[in-house]
Amino acid sequence: MAQLETALGSDKSLIDLWSNIQGDALWKGRTGRGVRVGIVDSGVDTAHPELAGKIKASYQAVNESGQIVFKESTSGDQAGHGTACAGIITTLKTAVQAFSAPGDSVLIQPPVYAHFHNDVLLNGRHLALAPLERTDDGYQFNPRTFEAAIRPGTKLFILSHPHNPTGNVWSADELTAMGEICARHGILVISDEIHQDLIINPARKHIPFASLRPEFARNSITCTAPSKTFNLPGLQSANVFVPDRRLREELARQYERNMFPLVNVLGMVAAEAAYTHGEPWLEELLAYLRANHAHFAAAVNSATTKVRILPADSLYLAWMDCRGLGMDAASAMSDGST
Ligand SMILES: Cc1ncc(COP(=O)(O)O)c(C=O)c1O
Predict the structure, then answer these.
(1) 113 CB less than 6 Å from ligand 1?
(2) Where are the domains of the chain?
(3) For ligand 1, atom 7, which residue shows the shortest CA distance?
(4) How far is the CA of 88 from the centre of ligand 1 (A)?
(5) Which residue in 118, 153, 174, 292 has the most C-beta neighbors within 10 A?
(6) pLDDT, tens digit, for every residue of 20-47?
(7) Is the CB of 244 under 6 A from ligand 1?
(8) Among 3.40.640.10, 3.40.50.300, 2.60.40.1580, 3.40.50.360, what is the CATH number of 2-277?
């Protein structure tokens, strides 16, 4: 508490708000659409033991409807733990450093978010590419391509789930295939689930990778955040779940080596407010995004045959097939046309 008071100065209302976080509300979504997660800062244990206890206790919730990522494991040491961090990209970089060595490789599924490429290379690791296959109206996962991309030094798989930019919302079968292959090859799964709440196709449901099997939970790090869902990226607040104690401690050590790993208090307050009160707003947002997607696709697809907007199961982004324009990626980029 002393730390908080120092951070917040005399603003008692913020201290009270933060102190009164309802752990349960943080973890349990009401609609069952996705995962609601909470915040446990390493400093909370000592600064605010009551809050830390409340949040940790809420891990005991059972994953009946896919709402909760982790079940409490039988060993207290292995209890699923979340921690707050400044951002998912920071966590991806930190995990690459903690769980692989220079020269090792990291498995990714292009086309995928640029940071999955760049941050791996920036850290002196190689990329093991398992491209998604183009279908008539989207992309698909092929387990044979996935396994064939694995090399002896492949240590990590960074999963984009739902997938940015294709919008694929991975099914239980697809996730199970990925999880089993990674387990067979001793590859740790980093599941970036930042887009989990933005499901555009109501027929699809986000299934947290770690919720499928206890062994998947133990062999994974799950990243989620309120930033995409509630438009809070400026407040630098995300959640990381590392059920396995050894992995959790190693990740924490690498954070400690790299930075002063405290979290923006305003970001935590905003996350708490969003998770607790944001559900109705999110429902309205989803209706709006679905209509925007449909409008944009219809307008572009009817205006030209050279650009095609692919149907998307998730994301507020549109993935456009621009090959009909006859430009290569480099000239399109330098032209500023993308
Ligand atoms: C797949 C994916 N992961 C992570 C991020 C960014 O996360 P953060 O701002 O927490 O670093 C984004 C933002 O575009 C994203 O699309």
Answers:
(1) yes
(2) 2-277, 279-334
(3) 88
(4) 6
(5) 174
(6) 433 333 333 333 333 333 333 333 444 4
(7) no
(8) 3.40.640.10
pLDDT in tens, 224-279: 888 898 898 888 878 788 878 889 889 888 988 888 767 777 877 777 777 777 77
CA 160–ligand 1 middle distance (angstroms) = 10
pLDDT score at 121: 98
- CA of 326 from ligand 1 middle (Å) equals 30
Query: pLDDT of 148-184, one tens digit each?
Result: 999 999 999 999 999 999 999 999 999 999 999 999 9
What is residue 206's predicted lDDT score, i.e. its pLDDT?
Answer: 86
Q: Which atom of ligand 1 is nearest to the CA of 228?
A: 13
The one-letter amino acid code at 246 reads: R
Give residue 243 CA to ligand 1 midpoint distance, Å: 21
Ligand 1 contacts CB of residue 132 (under 6 A): no
Minimal-distance CA residue to ligand 1 atom 9: 87
Question: CA–CA separation, 206 vs 161, rounded Å?
Answer: 8
